[in-house]
Amino acid sequence: MFRITGLVVIISLFITLSALLVLWPSVLSPLIYLAAIQNEMKEDLSSVQLPPRYLSRMDEMGDLYRSFLSLAARVTKAIQETRAARENLQFQVEERTKELLQTQADYREIFENALQGIVITTPEGKFENANPAFVQMMGFNSLEDLKNQISNIGHQMWVHPDKRTEMLDILKAESRASFETELQKKDGEPIWVSMAVWAKRSKSGRILSIEGVLENITDRKQYEQELHESRSELVMHRDYLHSRVPPF
Q1: What is this structure's pTM?
Q2: 8 A C-beta contact, residue 180 and residue 166
């Protein structure tokens, strides 16, 4: 009984070894080779090459080799295109970042050196930022001094607070507004300013901040007032002379 079992085992081993020897050149060896190439593909698909003897085979293994090589070529092309797109995107991001930084630098230079006052305020009436020209125009020592002294622009700086309310109403409907109004300096002296303002909004349309450019037009207003008074005086004198001169 044991002799028969041993004989069966020996015959089974012999058949298995024979099958392996038969399959080795046609199936097992190519599959092992493909596995080795797969490991290479993880590093560099462009280096994938197959021996001509495998590609010239006309059986199923030949088809497998050719399909494998075609797949490697497509994957290589996709990886190259993805890498090129990523590099192009990175280049565009870097260029756009440079442009934004340059734009910010240009804006900062204009903001700091402008002769007109430039302000950024909240709808509630607080200063977010103001350039040196505005700080000096209103008689404050610095931006910090301005922010510390003024907590409600409408009541502390506008001579007529209702005018600021009107401005806010306009900006709720329009994107920009221009007008002339009186502001009160730190020492209480009123000045006339010409103001152009616009609203910065959220995606929902809510006003986030109000930006404006202001110019001191007090001298022009005084000149206009003096001119108006002179004209009124001339009209009064003309009317007086007409009343004193008898008609012909």
Answers
A1: 0.58
A2: no
